[in-house]
Known about the structure:
Structural class: alpha+beta
Strand content: 5-15%
Helix content: 25-40%
Shape: globular
Distance between the termini: 52 Å
Number of strands: 17
Number of helices: 17
Largest sheet: 4 strands, mixed
Radius of gyration: 24 Å
Amino acid sequence: MTDNNKPDDIDNAQNTLDDGKEPNVELSSPCKTPRPKDAKADPNFTNTLSLPMKTIRQTNKALEELPSLTAGGEEAMGSWLQVYTAGFSHYQAGGSFEDSLNREGSAWRQNVKAGEMKMGIVKPRVAASADGAKLSGDSALFKIGNALGLGGTLKFPLWHSGIWLSIKDPGESPLLAMERKIAEQKIVLGRQSNGIAFSSVNVYTRRWWLEVAFSSIYDATYTNRNMKALMKVIKITDAPLIAWGLLCTIHPNGFNLAQACVADIHKCQHVVEELVNLSKLCWTDNNMLSDDQKQFMSDRDKRHNFQDIEKYQKQFSFNNHDKIQINENLYMTFKVPTIEEYLVSGERWVDSIVDVVERGMGSGLSDAIKDQYISEQGRATTLRQYAAWIDKLYIDEGEGNFSIVEDRETIDLACDRFSAQKDICDLIFKEIGKFIDLATFSIIGIPTYNCPACEKPQTDQESKYPTIIPLDIEETFFTLVRLKVIEIINRTNSIKDPIS
Length: 500
């Protein structure tokens, strides 16, 4: 991980209050609570989610000092190292969205206000049934799940797309099948995202979990509610919110949380164990939404057609950004792709890499050599992982005239050429990263906390106006799915076969 050359005061920037200005970040509901006194102990953290306690810069500082601490043997560090290491994987690549949280004039909140109305994740209303009523299907399962305190049903807004989704707990079988697909995946491209979110490196993995999520949707405020139609209108920037919403249905009562202190790892190796309230981890910049957009979203049940949704999405100011100059003759503009556009573009890139390797090297290669060639081809065409974000190319024809390239296949081939020129490639990566940070205004994150063992308690102002750590919620999703799979396997192994 890199610290992105952030200034030393970056950790305090979000909660600095200037006279007359509203805070960038304001917390209204706690994101974690003490574990119940009767909660089952988990000394080996086998059923616990490890998340970072401090920003990536502070954690990187601890990482620099780690070799001197582990010189005497990792065993001596106990559970701290286990929790610290596991928590590291949940940071956003390259510290994405930290700049967004510090954006001048932003107002990141756990809900969106429209007048006196606050909009955020809610439990759908389920009407009470008459005495003796016969129930079946989803309505019966909803009530059974609520009665047992198991996975539930939730409704939440996709702010980038202009749609409310109602989603239910997918159940264990789809999660087991998804985990099996991921375990059997043979194409590994590694991390080539240059520290930018929404890379297509793991596009097939993203499709598999999205299919589980979309199969769990039982209602939406879009007139066409089948999976293909929704994927063609929901923006990829809402994919993390869908992962978060799905997690909230699977774990409606929260989940065990462990956080390792990194304030001074030579003096303190304390691990905080609490309960994380997943439903409180979504943060949305209210000031990115116009009054019209807030009004549009204020009716959680009203259905909208494609033209309505398109009008909502076109109102965002980032759609009107200036052309990005690549050199004296070439410019480009960006867009936020839909989930379908993102998946098709990413799969086309990965499939083209595999095709080149198999045609050029034959099918008799060992898996190790094949993986090496695939990884090399991925690096050689690295910009292709963000081709879906490029809207148009503009070629200067002189005298103020431009020819325009918007054909997707041509843009793909152009990205291959850009990838071979380091200066151009680096410039485009930088500009795409800036655009993604600007266009992503609803994220999943957890506040930083002071260690109760070695630091002073947080002041009221620090608690109310916290610094937020953006989380890679898809990594969090897969972590919790793996823990769920282990739980299922342990449970089934403990059940005696009644026939034997």
